[in-house]
Amino acid sequence: MQAIVGYHRPESLAAALSLLNRKSPRSVVLAGGTSLNASESSQPIEMIDLQAIGFDQIRSGSAVVEIGAMVRLSDLAAHQAIPELLRELTTREGPNTLRNAATIGGTIATGHPDSELVAGCLVYQGRVTLATAGGATQSVELNELLADRSKLEGSIIIGLEIESGGTAAAERTGRTPSDLSIVAAVGRRTVAGVRLALTGTASTPILVEPDAIADLEPPGDFRGSSAYRRHLAQTLTRRVTEQLGEPS
Q: pTM value?
C-alpha cells in the first residue's frame, strides 16, 4: 500500500499538469481510483484527482469515435456509438461496482495484461491523446504507448480515438465464465486486412501476427504455464480468424 501524503483536485488540465510535473513530492494521477492503492510501492505520493477537469464525453463521427479519458466504463458499455464488441469487452473488466468508477483513461494507463478491453482498443486502431507539460498535446498509437510506458511520464491521457467500422470477434478462456481470461484473442477485419490482439501473453495486451504466435514466450503463473498460454493463444486465434472469414 502506498503512503498517500497529499490530495489535490485541480479544476483545469493546466493546473493538473503543473502539479504532476513538480520535482517533488512524487505525484500520481487519480482517474477512477480502482488501482492506485493496489501498488506495492511504499514511496510516499500525492494524488492528483482528475474528476473536475472534464474529458468525460463520447463523440462519434462517420468513421471514428472520440472518447474522453474520464468516461466511466459503465457509460462506455452503454453507449450505442461504441462498437458492439467493445461494449461487450468493457463488461469483462470487472463487476459493476468497479466499472462505475473505472475510466477508459485509467484502464489504458494501467495496461493490465488480462484486459480484453485494451486488446479490443488495439484492434480498433486506438490512438491516445496525451497532454504534456506546457499545454502541448500529442497523438500516440495505443500499441506504441503500451510498448513504451515512458511516454506517460509527466503527461496525462485526455482521450482515445478508435475506428468504428469492420467486423470483429473475440474468444477467451478463463477458469470460470466470470473470471479474468487466462488468454483472450480479439480480432477485427476491414478492407485493409485483419488486426489481431492477445491478452495474457505479455506484460500488456499486444498486437500479433497469427504466424508469429508460436514464437511467443508468455509469462506463466498459477493459472497456466507459458506453454499452455501459447497453446491457448494459437487455438483462440484460429477460432477468431475463422469467425472473421480468414483461413485457419
A: 0.92
Give me the CATH number covering residue 184.
Answer: 3.30.390.50
Cα separation, 42 vs 10, whole angstroms: 25
Going by C-alpha positions, the residue among 132, 162, 172 that lies closest to residue 150 is 132
In the listed set 140, 163, 186, which residue is the last one of a domain according to the structure? 163
pLDDT computed for residue 248 by the predictor: 41
Query: How many other CB atoms are there within 10 angstroms of residue 235's CB atom?
Result: 15
Q: Which cell numbers in the block locate residue 157?
A: 491521457
Sequence-distant (6+) residues with CB within 8 A of 95 are none
Task: Tell me whether residue 248 is in a domain.
Answer: no
The grid cell for 151 is 511516454
Domain boundary among 29, 49, 69: 49
The verdict on 13 and 100 lying in the same domain is no
* pLDDT by 10-residue block (mean), the chain, 248 residues: 82 93 86 64 83 94 93 95 96 87 93 96 97 89 95 94 95 90 96 95 95 94 95 97 76
Asked if 197 contacts 119 with a C-beta cutoff of 8 angstroms, the reply is yes
Q: Are 81 and 64 in contact (CB under 8 A)?
A: no
**CA 138, CA 155: separation in Å to the nearest integer?**
10
Query: What is the span of the domain harbouring residue 30?
Result: 4-49
- Mark whether 45 and 115 lie in a shared domain: no
Same domain for 105 and 128 = yes
Is there a cis peptide before residue 25, judged by omega within 30 degrees of 0? yes
